[in-house]
Amino acid sequence: MAKNTAAPLVKEEVVPVTDEKPTGSLVTADQMWEQLESAEHDESVAEGGVPYVGFYSEKSKPHVSDPMKAAGAPVDTFYLDNGVKVPLIPFKYLLLDSARYFTKVDNQNKVLAAYKEDPNEAKFSEHGLAAIIVILNGQYFPATAQFRGGQFRCLAAARKMQLLARKEPEKFAAQGEAWKVAITAPPPVRFIVTASAQLTKSTTSGNDFIKGFATAVAPKIDEVNSFIAASKDPKFMAGVNAAIGAFTRRKQAIEKLLPR
How many other CB atoms are there within 10 angstroms of residue 51's CB atom? Predict the structure, then answer.
C-alpha cells in the first residue's frame, strides 16, 4: 500500500501466518508486512480481495485466537486480516462510506432478515457496514469492517462526523481551530477515529455482548499531507476502490432482504 518513511510495525519478532485455520508456520514481521501488501488485490483472499477488520475476544474461535495469542495481542483487540492477522493497537481509521441496518443473523453470522429502522423485534440488532482506511504506523490500508450490536458505537462517531462535515460544514468547522483546517482537507481525512471494544455482560439479560467505544479528532497538518501523498499512489487508490466495491456488494446483499 501507500508508504512513507514510518518504521515497520514491529522488528525482529515472529508472527504466525494464518488462513482459515492457523498453519503454525512463522514469518518475520517484515515478511508479514510484505504478505499484507502483495495479497492486497488477490481475489482469492478475503472478501473480493480486500482486507477486513475483525475483533478478537475471549469467545473468538481458534482460527482467530491462536494467531492473536501468538502475536502477543491482548483480548478485546481489533485486527487487520488479509490472510495474516495484524493486531491494531490502537485501531485508528478514516471513514470512506458506511451503512446501518438492523439485522437478524444465524449462528454462522449469516444475515437472515434486515430492516432500515429498528423493528423492535427480538433477535434484531444494529449492524453497521463500512469501507475504511486503517492507519497503521503511518501507512494506509483500505479495508472493510462490520460492527454489530454494541460494537456499532465504533462506527457511530464516524458517521456523525461525516454527516456533519457534509451537511453542516460551518458547524463542523466551529468545533475549534483544528477543525477549521480539517474541513478544507480531502473528505476521508477530515477526522480520524480511534475505536476500541470490550466483551462485557449485560446487567439486564446477563448475556455477553461487545460494547464499542470511539472518539473522532481533527487531523494534524502532517497527517493530512501524508494522506494526500498516499492518494497519489495508483496502488493505494486501487485499494480504496476495491474496499468501496466490497462494501457496496455487501450492502446490496443486505438490501435484498429488506421488506418490500
Answer: 27
- The residues facing 139 across adjacent strands are 136
Cell of 233: 499512489
Residue type, position 44, single letter: S
| Residues 228 and 116: beta-carbon distance below 8 Å | no
Contacts for 171 with CB less than 8 Å, ≥ 6 apart: 164
**Average pLDDT of every residue of the chain:** 82
Write down the pTM of the prediction: 0.79
The torsion angles phi and psi of 176, rounded to 5 degrees, stand at: 155, 175
SS3 182: helix
Q: Taking residues 115-134, what's their average pLDDT?
A: 95
Torsion of CA 9, 10, 13, 14, to 10 degrees: -10
Cβ atoms of 93 and 73 closer than 8 Å: no
